[in-house]
């Protein structure tokens, strides 16, 4: 993945700390009831509470060393109620954010921890929380009208995560897939990386016996000369696009309109 290519591994913990701090600074003096344009059901305090809760949750898992999903109910019983005022919200965010960074800093990336994704490790929680902080930092900045650039390498890794984990599919027992469109190449213009995705409709039954019928991508690294279309943009803009956030620059779309529409169909479901 891009994080292990040029420049060495990404410093996810550094990004987590920096974007969490920027998130806090953006919202500290924002009116409590100002709407979040990228999450219109939320106001500024809702956004602050959301990231504070997320960082509390993963910090709690890391601190307790939880690996069994059956332990989550007991953990959640210790969750604090949402504070009623901004000062208390900020205090909860500060405690949650500092604890998350501290605990993850003290764990080897290989440490097993519960995770909803296939990669159940402290290393993936570092990665996921760096991206969580970055995208919500952007939400906070858009809320107060003070957008700043996203890191190129982190954004390229965010594209990889969004395509492979958030919207990707790997064949597994109980599920089948059929292509819903031809292959499309997605390429960064600044991070020297590209992916080729094939939209597929995934159907079947999951481990709990629930019916599955969803749109996902099969993903491989690199361009494909046989791809029916190509989507290009900066890593930051592509990451925003995949997270249903507004891009700053131009994202170009060339090639077969049906292929591009099939990609859009996969992106129609929210991953917020």
Task: Report on this structure.
Helices cover 43% and strands 18% of the residues. The protein has helices at residues 12-27, 44-64, 72-76, 86-105, 122-144, 152-166, 235-242, 257-266; strands spanning 35-36, 39-43, 175-179, 184-188, 194-205, 211-221, 229-233, 252-255. The strands form 2 sheets. Strands 3, 4, 5, 6, 7 and 8 form a 6-stranded mixed β-sheet that branches. It is built from 8 helices and 8 strands; from the N terminus they run αββαααααβββββαβα. The protein folds into 2 domains: 2-148, dinb family like domain (Four Helix Bundle (Hemerythrin (Met), subunit A), Up-down Bundle), CATH 1.20.120.450; 153-266, Nonspecific Lipid-transfer Protein, Chain A (2-Layer Sandwich), CATH 3.30.1050.
Please, what is the CATH homologous superfamily of the largest domain?
dinb family like domain
The residue fraction in helices comes out at 40-55%
Stretches where pLDDT falls below 50 for ≥5 residues?
A: none
Helix-strand sequence: HEEHHHHHEEEEEHEH
Tell me the number of strands: 8
CATH class type of the largest domain: Mainly Alpha
Mean pLDDT: 94
Distance between the termini: 22 Å
Shape: globular
Over all CA atoms, what is the radius of gyration? 19 Å
Main traits of this protein?
Four Helix Bundle (Hemerythrin (Met), subunit A); two-stranded antiparallel ribbon; single chain; 8 helices; 6-stranded mixed beta sheet; 272 residues; alpha+beta; Nonspecific Lipid-transfer Protein, Chain A; 8 strands
């Amino acid at each position: 993945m891009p994080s292990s290519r040029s420049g060495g591994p990404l410093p996810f913990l550094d990004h987590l700390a920096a974007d969490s701090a920027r998130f806090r600074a953006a919202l500290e003096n924002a009116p409590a009831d100002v709407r979040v344009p990228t999450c219109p059901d939320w106001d500024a305090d809702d956004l602050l509470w959301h990231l504070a809760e997320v960082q509390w949750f993963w910090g709690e898992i890391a601190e307790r060393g939880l690996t069994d999903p059956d332990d989550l109910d007991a953990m959640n019983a210790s969750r604090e109620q949402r504070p009623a005022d901004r000062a208390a919200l900020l205090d909860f965010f500060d405690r949650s954010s500092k604890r998350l960074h501290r605990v993850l800093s003290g764990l080897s990336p290989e440490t097993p921890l519960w995770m909803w994704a296939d990669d159940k490790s402290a290393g993936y929680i570092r990665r996921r929380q760096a991206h969580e902080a970055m995208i919500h930092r952007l939400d906070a900045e858009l809320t107060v009208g003070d957008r700043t650039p996203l890191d190129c390498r982190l954004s390229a890794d965010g594209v990889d995560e969004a395509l492979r984990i958030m919207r990707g599919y790997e064949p597994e027992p109980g599920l089948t897939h059929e292509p819903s469109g031809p292959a499309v190449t997605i390429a960064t213009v600044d991070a020297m990386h590209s992916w080729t995705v094939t939209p597929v409709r995934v159907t079947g039954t999951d481990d709990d016996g629930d019916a599955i019928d969803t749109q996902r991508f099969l993903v491989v690294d690199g361009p494909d000369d046989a791809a029916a279309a190509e989507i290009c943009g900066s890593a930051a803009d592509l990451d925003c696009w995949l997270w249903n956030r507004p891009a700053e620059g131009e994202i170009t779309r060339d090639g077969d309109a049906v292929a591009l529409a099939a990609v859009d169909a996969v992106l129609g479901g929210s991953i917020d």
